[in-house]
Amino acid sequence: MELVERFGSPLKFTYLPKISSQIVKARELFEASRLKHQYRGSYNYCYCTKSSHFRFVLDEVLKNKVDLETSSAFDLDIIRSLEKSGKFNKSQFIVCNGYKTEAYAQKMAAMVQDGFENLVCVLDNPDEFDLYANYIKGPAKLGIRIATEEEPNFLVYTSRLGMSYKRVLELYQEKIKNHPDFQLKMLHFFVNSGIKDTTYYWSELARLVNVYCDVKEVCPELDTLDIGGGMPIYTSLGVEYDYAYMIDQIVYYIKSICESRGVPEPNIITEFGSFTVGESGGVLYSIIGKKEQNDKEKWYMIDSSFITTLPDTWGIGQKFILLALNQWDKEFQRINLGGLTCDGQDFYNSDTNTNQVFMPKTADGEKLFMGFFHTGAYQESLGGYGGIQHCLIPAPKHLLIDRDLNGELTFEVFAQEQSPEEMLKILGY
C-alpha cells in the first residue's frame, strides 16, 4: 500500500535482494548434497539471460559470481558490455544454447579468439558444427544438446531441441574426435516440464545420465553435464516445494548411475532463469470499475491490461500469486478480473489451486488495490518492453527496490509509464 500511495498504479516493481537470495539458496543446497554423497564433481550456477535481460538484473546476478547461459547472438553483445565494465571476466562459463545463426556463430568465434576461454558452443543439431567450424581458429570447447522425450500428454513425442543420443555419438566419432580445434566438454539436456518430483522427470534424468556415461566411455575429455533449468517457483500460496529433497535426489541419481557404470561423476551445471529472477517481481493495480454481466459473473476492472503487463497469463495460462492489498476486513466474493483492452482474452479468473479468484466486496467510492507477485521472469520481453502495446494501453511505471548497507529500503524509478508521445514516435506519427 505504501508503494501504491507513493508511486501510483499500475506499478511494476523488482525487489533486487530476492535474486541473490535465490542463487545463495540453490548453491547451498547443491553443496550440502555434494558433501552428503561425497560427490567429486563441481557445481556451477548459470543464469539464463532470456528470463530477463535487464541491466539491473544482470548486475545483481553477477554480484554472486555466477556464469551465464545465452540463447541468441545479441546475448553475446550484452556479455561483451558486462566484461568491459568489469562485471564479468573471460574465465567465467558462457553456455551458448539456442539455434545457431550465422551471426551467432561469428560472435561466438570472435569471443573465443578474444580470450573467453570457457565459452561453450552447445550444438543443437549436427549442421551447426560445420557452421561454427567455418569461423573458429584455434582450440574451442563444444557441448551437445540431447533431445528429451516429452511428457506423455504433450503434442509431440520428442523435443525439437537437441538431437537423438544416437546422433550424439555419430557426431563425436565422425567430426569432433579427431578435429584439432575442438574438444567435446559438455552434454546438455533440458526437461521441458522443469524439475519436478514426478516419475517422468526421474526416468528422463536417469536415461540422460546413462547417455552421458555412453559418450564418456569413448570421449575422455567430456567432464560436464548441464542438467538445464526449470526449478519451480511459487505461483500459489497453497503449495510447498521441497527444494532440498529434489536437489539431493538429482545429485544422488547422477552419482549412483555413474558409479554403477564405472564412470567418474561429471561436473554439474544448472541454468536457472525463472528460479533466479521470477520471485523478485510484482505488479500492482487499482480496481477502477465493476461490472455484472449476469447473476453469477461479477467483474472488477483493473487500471491496465493483462496482455500488456502479464502476457504469460493469456499466452500460456500462467498463474501467479494474487492478493488484495487492502480491504482485508471486508467479506470476499468470487470475481473475474478484466483488463482495459477490447480483447476477449484480456482477463484473469482462476488461481492455481482453487480455479477461482476472490476479492473483497467494496462499497461505491471505496478504493481497492491488488497485486500479482512472482512475475519477474519473461513478462517484459514477451510484452515488448518499451514498444507498442495492445490497444495502446501504456506499459506501467517500473520501480527498482533494493537495500543499502544499513538494510534500509531504497527506491529507484527505472522507467516512467509510457507516454503518448513515445508510442506515436514508434508508430511514425
CATH class of the largest domain: Alpha Beta
- Uncertain runs are none
Task: Using the CA coordinates, give the radius of gyration.
Answer: 24 Å
Mind summarizing the main beta sheet? 10 strands, mixed
Query: How many strand elements?
Result: 18
Briefly note the structural class of the backbone: alpha/beta
Instruction: Determine the mean pLDDT.
Output: 92
Helix content: 25-40%
What is the name of the CATH superfamily of the largest domain? Answer: Alanine racemase
**Apparent shape:** globular
Distance between the termini: 38 Å
And the CATH topology of the largest domain? Answer: TIM Barrel
The assigned CATH architecture of the largest domain is: Alpha-Beta Barrel
Approximate strand percentage: 15-25%
Write a structural description.
It is a single chain. The protein is an alpha/beta fold. Helix content is 33%, strand content 23%. It has 2 domains: 2-12 and 279-427, Lyase, Ornithine Decarboxylase, Chain A, domain 1 (Beta Barrel); 37-272, TIM Barrel. It has helices at residues 2-7, 17-36, 55-62, 73-84, 102-113, 127-133, 165-176, 199-216, 243-261, 274-277, 306-309, 311-315, 379-383, 420-427; strands spanning 11-15, 43-48, 67-70, 94-96, 119-123, 140-145, 182-188, 224-226, 267-272, 281-292, 298-302, 321-324, 332-338, 347-348, 357-360, 369-373, 397-403, 409-415. The strands form 2 sheets. Strands 1, 10, 11, 12, 13, 14, 15, 16, 17 and 18 form a 10-stranded mixed sheet that branches. The longest helix has 20 residues, at 17-36.
